[in-house]
């Protein structure tokens, strides 16, 4: 089924009150698939589905309010919809709700227990962003006792799913021997995976590993390559 046909099909069902079709039609308008992108229409259909209790639509509606797409930006309303979705167990909403509490957007800031609670629920369902966020909470001791081993656990789960932030932080943990024995080769591995996703600080640190000969043969030429890539992205160290 092509996108235009899908839109027609979703619309027929959506106009009869089918929440799943309303959600899918909202996605088509949000993404501009089969119709011109129209955030206001996306919000309309997400709202109709969300008011029927559709967790996916509630999460999307929260996103639209957080970003001010199709509606005025409103963090409190974003939190309302994220909460309804998260309480139904939707992992992506749980991670976003945790972030809202951590930042204090639309709620009283609580980067402690409440943020950790929602990140944990999401991370345990395998959401890479939540695993990274939870790793950061344990690394920094925000809302939980500082625990490098647990930070490494969550960073690893996220990094293995390809999250560049987690890969970079995991590289730092291996290089510094925090939560794991110091292991320059593993540090290089994770820095490289992150650097190849154009994460500037990973590129810089990978260059440093080559410059110093930590975990790789010393190689100034390769070090300069990675330093230059980091600099081209505006890495502050090279401004």
Short summary of the structure?
The protein is mainly α and 239 residues long.
Q: What descriptive keywords fit this protein?
A:
239 residues; mainly alpha; Serine Threonine Protein Phosphatase 5, Tetratricopeptide repeat; 13 helices; 68% helix; 0% strand
What would your notes on this structure say?
The protein has 239 residues and is mainly alpha-helical. The chain has two domains: 1-125, Tetratricopeptide repeat domain (Serine Threonine Protein Phosphatase 5, Tetratricopeptide repeat, Alpha Horseshoe); 127-239, Serine Threonine Protein Phosphatase 5, Tetratricopeptide repeat. The chain has helices spanning 3-14, 19-31, 39-50, 55-67, 75-86, 91-103, 113-123, 128-140, 148-159, 164-176, 184-195, 200-212, 220-232. Helix 2 (19-31) packs antiparallel against helix 3, helix 3 packs antiparallel against helix 4 (55-67) and helix 8 (128-140) runs antiparallel to helix 9. The termini are far apart. The mean pLDDT is 96.
Q: What's the shape?
A: elongated
Distance between the first and last residues' Cα? 50 Å
- The first-level CATH class of the largest domain is given as Mainly Alpha
CATH superfamily of the largest domain: Tetratricopeptide repeat domain
Average pLDDT figure? 96
């Amino acid at each position: 089924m092509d996108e235009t046909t899908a839109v027609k099909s979703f619309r027929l069902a959506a106009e009869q009150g089918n929440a799943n079709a309303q959600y899918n039609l909202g996605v088509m308008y949000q993404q501009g698939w089969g119709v011109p992108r129209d955030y206001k229409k996306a919000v309309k259909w997400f709202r109709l589905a969300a008011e029927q209790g559709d967790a996916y639509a509630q999460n999307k509606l929260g996103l639209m309010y957080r970003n001010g797409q199709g509606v005025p930006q409103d963090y409190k309303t974003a939190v309302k919809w994220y909460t309804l979705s998260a309480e139904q167990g939707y992992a992506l909403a749980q991670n976003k709700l945790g972030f809202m509490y951590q930042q204090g957007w639309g709620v009283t800031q609580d980067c402690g227990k409440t943020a950790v609670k929602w990140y944990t629920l999401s991370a345990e369902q395998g959401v890479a962003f939540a695993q990274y966020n939870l790793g950061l909470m344990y690394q920094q001791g925000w809302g939980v006792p500082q625990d490098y081993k647990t930070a490494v656990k969550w960073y690893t789960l996220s990094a293995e799913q390809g999250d560049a932030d987690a890969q970079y932080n995991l590289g730092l943990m291996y290089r510094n021997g925090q939560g794991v024995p110091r292991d320059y080769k593993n540090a290089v591995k994770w820095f490289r995976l992150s650097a190849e996703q154009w994460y500037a600080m990973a590129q810089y640190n990978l260059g440093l590993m080559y410059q110093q000969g930590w975990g790789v043969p010393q190689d100034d030429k390769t070090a300069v390559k990675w330093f230059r890539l980091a600099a081209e992205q505006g890495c502050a160290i090279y401004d």
